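Ticket #4471: complex job returned nothing on first submit. Input attached below:
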Amino acid sequence: MPFATAPAPHVVAPSSVARVMRQVLYALVPTVVLHGVFFGPGLLIQIVLGVATALLCEAAALRLRGKPLPPFLLDGSAIITAVLLALCLPPLAPWWLVVSGVAFAILVAKHLFGGLGANPFNPAMVGYAVLLVSFPARLLQWLPPDVPGMQPTDLSAMETLTTILTGSPPARFTWDAITSPTPLDALRTDLALGMTMGEAHARALFSTFGGKGWEWINLATLAGGIWLLALKIIRWHIPVAMLGALFVCGSVMSAADPGAYAGPLFHLTSGASLLGAFFIATDPVSAATSDRGRLIYGAGIGVLTYVIRTWGGYPDGVAFAVLIMNLAVPLIDRYTIPRIYGHAR
Amino acid sequence: MLPALLTMIGLAAAAGVAAAFAARRSERDRNRLVEEIDALLPQTQCGRCTFAGCRPYAAALANGAADINQCPPGGHATAAALASLLGREAKPVDPRFGNVSTRPMVAWIDEGACIGCVKCIQACPVDAIVGASKFMHTVIAAHCTGCELCIPPCPVDCIVMRPAPT
Amino acid sequence: MARPGVRGGLRLNAHTERSTEHPLRPASPVESLVLPLDQHAGAAAVPLVKPGDRVLHGQPIAEPGGGISAWLHSPASGTVAAIEPRPAPHRMGAPTLSIVVANDKRDERYGAASPPRFEELSPQQLRDTIGRGGVVGLGGAVFPTATKLAGAADASGLRLLLNGAECEPYISCDDMLMRERARDIVFGARVLLHALAAQTCVIAIEDDTPQPAAALSAAIAEAHDDRIQLRLVATIYPAGGEKQLIATVFGVEVPTGGLPADVSTVCLNVGTVAAVAQWIRDARPLTSRIVTVTGDGVREQRNLDVPLGTPMAALIYDCGGYTGRMSRLIMGGSMMGQALPHDDLPVIKATNCIIAASPLDLQQRGPEMPCIRCGNCSAVCPAVLLPQQLHWYTQARDLQALETHGLLDCIECGCCDYVCPSQIPLAERFRDMKPALLEKLTADANADAARARFDARTARLDRIERERDAALAKKRQELTKKS
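Support reply: We reran it on our side without changes. The output follows.
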């Protein structure tokens, strides 16, 4: 009796790229929800615009490269790039900001280098870096969070939509009236003005750890990250190394001069630290390969983030830190090949 | 304006000098490079590259006196490996130096015609032919590198190339 | 001391509950037995009989060919029907020269004189005797046991490791052997300790089923031999891989390209050891083995004691036949077993398990996507490789990089394959790439030898020239002195 044959192994785990990406998206849901709670519906609109752009660009690029649309189009990687980039942009950013950033990320950072699995740089961070360098002022126009002590911006959902689509706020507001800096941005400006850390922290924007509202969003990100760790979608090396390095730098510097340097917990809970640690730096394609390599990679990102935040030209350094360490990955990989069983120590 | 200009020119000049120094190889580095190149060559010792063996070719490559596409026994794979090692443009083996064979060939002596003149034994660069004057000569196939240097000296043309036994 | 378990690896469902429910029974006798002459590692055996000869059960019918080889014995009494090429499972159904024995079902045994007590033989004599029993590694590698023992015999401080860590899903033949024939294993251990002049024997088994441990502990206690110990290892696939087991039990690693003998260890499957016992104690050479018949595609899942050469189709019939869900026939386990093109193939010494797999047993691969560099593969690799990089370099056919990253150290366990979200058939790719790498390494070794010969010749010619110049100079000197 004849049978069809196939090579071993005859059992494989029911896993797929789409499933991995889906889990990452689920893990981002708490962050998106809390972001909406504190900053209004702007983020959702940015996400919709971003995802639509991402899918369109992905389809166009796949066509041009002669690749089949399924399974690549809906494998989820483009959607994640769009969502991460949208999370980095101000909720009221004009539509062309997210569209151009996502388009650049997908077309240039991903497909020009070879598509899924071949990009040496994190696409979302490349898109963000391009926007930051080209439109720096736009990216600093955040909203005040909807917390006690702050004057929330009173825009309805419809008004948010029109602001994003037209690029200007409703007639009764000016940009200055409705925008507010992020905690990192505020801290940087105040320190440059000669305030001490204590004085800067006295602002209504800050609470015990980091910025009001921002703390909760970061906690939601942490929860999502822990969920991904539990499901073994990501491994612990990069997040622990990055947050650890950031914590150490923050502790050392703030112990040396508490008036001039923010404490470690502030750094961990503000800006894109946790989002970066669990969702951005852990992008497997552009990260280092071995466990030891990933520890070095994560630590490098943590240190560079601290350096850029404290002494560099931008309020948050995660994007550039990630991109610089992406550059270093081939070198890290070369020197961190693990010792194979049976090879000399 | 002038100080800035001078500073930039000075820095550029310093960087250029440092780069020139770094690019020069010390004697020990040069020897090590020759070793590394020689390790990539097939050790056929045939001379088709116009040098008297693999090591002279390796030395010439290290000095920039030869190109990477001169070794037919190594084939295109060796040319590519040499290009990668030396940072030069990869190119296939130049057919002017010989044909790249698809399977390894070894010499075979027709013992019926051999006259025991030892001319082929003297020609073989890797001592793969056993025999003595007026004694039968035979090629040790496992040791033959396929260089074909034994074929011209044979006065009775009794040596041919055959596919290597697997 | 020994690490707690294998590095990486997977926790897999063993699927052995049904096949271990029933006790062992012999397989029903069949009309015709097909014995491939090359069913062991090394050179094919050479027939001692010709078509038409009458043979008895246990009679030697083929002797070792040159080099590494093994004896072959008739598994039944009857007549040699033919010696001709027949499809063989270890050649994916391609024909190989086989002795076909027509079974007269009278099971008349080949009378041999009662064997001497093994303690009275010297280790060398005992090793030679073991060889004549046709014993080969029954864990699947079918390496001639006498050759393995001879190769290790000169090392000092040898330790014997008996591999009962049957880790691959679906296989339970060693499990049943340990439950029902623990005494054979312990006797065999004592024989081998004498054959190797060794003082330590560790029997390693997995910690998931209690019956084998209980049976072996009882047998060891009964033998009153404190050289033999039982050791439980964590139930992780592939804990039973020889290299992994040696690292777990003894805390040392077999050097790359080396053998367990290099770390003073001889590792044998418990089935091999039981076969040694049956030969040395009862004068019964290797003519049958325990085979697990399992899978949702066969009605009765159990282990049987099967004469070598039994057609697999007959074995399935013996177990109630196929169910309607039968889909794929696999010789071996679900992770490393070979899928067979049909069931008209004989049971050979390497057949530890036959899986009649249905879609319930098989977890098929999805469509292949590019590698997303997630690193799941390197997390589970028991050989501490980076399968991700090996895949990258396999696609580029970069043989130098494959050598550096240890392609030849891959044990083809399939763990990386199992966890890959991009569904890349990694084990298959690595298996296919190894011959190309071995060819390159052989070519490199030949080139090094040629370089050595060339350098020696150049030195010799230089020396001859220098000696000639010196002799001429000396002669010139003497001539000028005279005049």
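The radius of gyration of chain B is 23 Å. Closing as resolved unless it happens again.
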